[in-house]
Amino acid sequence: MLSSWSPTTTTAATGLWFYTGKLYTATAKAVNDGERSINAAVKSANTAERSLIGLERPHIFVRIKPKLKVDMYEGHEQAKVKFIISNYGRFPAEIACCRFDIAQFKPVSNQIALRDEYHRGIGANKSFPITVSIAKVEDLIFDYDGNGDPISAKPKGHVSLETFFTIELRYKGLGDEVYESSYVWRWDHGVDRWTLHQSRRT
After folding, report:
1. Strands 150-155 and 140-144
2. H-helix segments, the chain
3. Roughly how many angstroms between the first and final C-alpha of the chain, as a whole number?
4. Domain 60-201 bears CATH identifier 3.40.50.1450
5. Measured between alpha carbons, how far is 100 from 170 in angstroms, rounded to an integer?
6. What's the whole-model pTM score?
């Protein structure tokens, strides 16, 4: 029985293997190029999304009235702090946490027991005021008018004892990103007003 394998058959088979190998290499390169293109497109889309969120996100700022507000409550003098929360961003914010407190202590951290209030939304380019009573500051100096009504107040202070007012906010905007704004004001006894001690925003 004669073999059907001939020089012509061998040449054809060798050519088939060669072109099959070339086709495999070209296909593998095309797949790799396609994967790189997809990865580049995904990266570009993620970058565009982050840029959009960065442009459209809310930006929360807090301003404080420099002087204490005073009035009478149930026959007793009362001092209050008024501050204003503003959203200067281009997207509404949902305030998830608004903690604030006032305390007299030596200027050391981790000594303020903050209370959490005022969970609410705030529109783009909108503001709302908050006024809170100073319940924990025992040593206040009040000034009175001719009728005996309080017209101004300031915390007592000395070298080793200062008064700080702290606000910490966490809020959401477009997407699931959570942002933070925190402020600490110190009562300046030289000018009898709040002055910004430190702030941080993300």
Report:
1. antiparallel
2. 7-56
3. 86
4. no
5. 12
6. 0.67
Give CA separation, 40 vs 21, 47, 52, in Å. 28, 10, 18
Cβ neighbours of residue 183 under 8 Å, at least 6 residues apart?
A: 62, 64, 166, 167, 196, 198, 199
Residues 85-129 have pLDDT tens digits of 999 998 999 998 888 888 776 544 444 455 666 778 899 999 989
Nearest to 102 by CA among 58, 145, 53, 140: 140
- For the chain, the domains span 1-56, 60-201
The pLDDT tens digits of the residues spanning 2-27 come to: 455 555 555 555 555 666 666 667 67
> What count of Cα atoms within 13 Å lies in the side-chain half-sphere of residue 162?
21
Report CA torsion sign: 135, 139, 145, 146: positive
pLDDT of residue 171: 93
Given this model, what pLDDT does residue 202 score? 87
How far is 40 from 50, CA to CA, in rounded Å?
15
